[in-house]
Design goal:
295 residues; alpha/beta; 8-stranded parallel beta sheet; two-stranded antiparallel ribbon; 11 helices; binds NADP nicotinamide-adenine-dinucleotide phosphate
């Protein structure tokens, strides 16, 4: 064997075993129906813990990036979160690798335009991937602004969000009436209301689904405190409770990604693990539901 060929074979063998040496496997991705672009099924939410600069945030975003995370969800009303995130992304040089989502969260057209411009400044970016109308506040007025921005190429996707079942009827109506790239809705193993009509409707209408409150703000952790992960969780490569809860969500065929709030690097490590390996099938999903319902 000549030297060049031996070198090539050694390089190929090294690449094949790299994952065993600590290189994480690639993250599972799903398609945004309106474009075909694929995004990782686990992102990062910035409500509450990113409201002001604090310990651990930089390390968490850095770890998130290293592990292949891209989707980051924020909002102009999460305290200073947009500015905190914008500063950290600039410092870490992470912006080009991320899929940045924020919201418009104010009444009135002019106020909405001002708030959106402020989001560009605070996030320190010329392009925002997704802006959604927050909790259906002045939906039609803001969707017109957002569509214009999409036409100009300043944003790439438009959407709407909710996290309250009291809004579901209006939310569904808006989904039927409007062409939207994304919806964002609350959905969790112990909060499955969105699975009844909203998720199927999103699939029917070709809308990507970003799931908020995937842990019910920690409620699910309280439910399983002191309980051991069932052995059958290994059937879908699940090694922790956070992965159990997240794999349930992202295995729903209509769900594109979930955005758990996380402000600790070890949470990023654990949560992004839910975007690796197998996902539960329909039978296992039912078993997970029965399990949580029995607690
Ligand atoms: N209407 C809307 O548009 C809307 C509404 C709500 C939320 N959202 C979006 O959805 C995101 C998620 O919601 P959320 O952050 O409020 O709630 P969540 O994701 O359901 O829960 C987040 C909390 O779970 C705990 N956690 C996360 N990863 C963990 C891990 N691996 N191990 C143990 N504990 C872990 C952390 O608690 P500790 O920090 O206490 O340790 C964290 O603050 C928000 O950040 C926001 O981007 C949007």
């Amino acid at each position: 064997m000549n030297r060049k060929r031996r070198h090539l074979l050694m390089a190929a063998a090294a690449a094949a075993v790299a994952p065993a040496w600590g290189q994480p496997a690639p993250l599972l991705r799903k398609k945004i129906p309106s474009s075909g672009e694929e995004i990782p099924v686990i992102g990062l939410g910035t409500a509450r813990r990113y409201e002001r600069p604090g310990p651990g945030l930089r390390e968490t975003l850095q770890r998130f990036g290293v592990l292949g995370g891209t989707v980051l969800d924020t909002a102009p009303v999460y305290g200073q979160a947009e500015a905190v995130v914008g500063d950290l992304l600039a410092e870490l040089k992470l912006r080009p690798r991320l899929f940045l989502a924020t919201k418009v969260s104010i009444s009135g057209r002019e106020a909405g335009v001002r708030q959106i411009e402020q989001s560009f400044q605070r996030l320190r970016t010329r392009k925002i991937d997704l802006i959604a109308v927050h909790n259906l506040r002045d939906t039609q007025i803001h969707l017109a602004t957002l569509r214009e921005l999409r036409k100009q190429g300043r944003i790439r996707y438009v959407g709407i969000t909710t996290s309250s079942d009291r809004q579901y009827a209006d939310f569904e109506q808006t989904m039927r009436r409007e062409a939207l790239d994304f919806i964002q809705v609350d959905y969790a193993l112990d909060n499955r209301g969105a699975g009844e009509r909203i998720l199927p409707l999103a699939a029917e209408r070709g809308m990507a689904v970003m799931v908020n409150l995937p842990f019910g703000r920690g409620r699910l952790f309280d439910a399983v405190r002191g309980k051991v992960l069932p052995a059958w969780a290994a059937e879908f490569d699940c090694a922790s409770w956070p992965q159990f809860f997240l794999k349930y969500i992202v295995s729903h065929p209509a769900v594109t990604c979930a955005v758990p709030g996380m402000a600790r690097p070890e949470y990023a490590e654990d949560n992004l693990g839910a975007a690796r390996g197998r996902l539960p099938d329909a039978a296992l999903r039912r078993r997970m539901e029965s399990f949580i319902d029995a607690i």
